[in-house]
Write a structure and sequence with these properties.
With 138 residues, the protein is mostly beta strands. A six-stranded antiparallel β-sheet has the order 1-7-11-10-8-9, with no helix packed on it. The chain has a five-stranded antiparallel β-sheet with strand order 2-6-5-3-4, with no helix packed on it. Strand 5 and strand 6 form a beta hairpin.
Length: 138
């Protein structure tokens, strides 16, 4: 099954994170959003955007607001039994900023760690710099 986050981004739950940093936002973000920097401001990074994914938002925040962010987080998302994926599936961002199975030129940002016992959720390790640490295998 191909993985896809199927609910609104606001249904994400941050379970754990690495060290945090406080940043000021240039637009509204929700917890679990992957963030990139443009100029000197932090924005939500999506497939179609030019902002390279760097951090994960640990809080919701308005434009101009200050939130905590991290380079790595464990994020639980809601999905459906038809879109749950499997442990080990590499995840990426689509144009809406939702998590989906990697492929099609989308930026890889993490991996599914576990699937909920109800098959309606997935817990992922999100590490935006995964693109820079993965290698191409022949």
């Amino acid at each position: 099954m191909a993985f896809a986050e199927t609910r609104l981004r606001g249904n994400r739950e941050i379970l754990e994170s690495s060290q945090t940093v406080k940043i000021t936002l240039a637009e509204l973000v929700m917890n679990g959003d992957v963030l990139g920097i443009t100029g000197a401001t932090w924005v939500r990074s999506a497939h179609a955007s030019s902002e390279h994914p760097l951090l994960i938002a640990l809080d919701d925040g308005p434009s101009g607001g200050e939130i905590r962010a991290s380079q790595m987080a464990v994020v639980k998302v809601v999905t459906t039994s038809g879109n749950v994926g499997t442990a080990g599936t590499v995840v990426a961002l689509n144009d809406s900023g939702n998590y989906v199975a990697a492929g099609g030129g989308l930026p890889d940002v993490g991996v599914i760690a576990t699937i909920g016992s109800d098959s309606l959720s997935a817990t992922m390790v999100i590490f935006p710099q995964i693109q820079q640490t993965t290698s191409v295998r022949a």
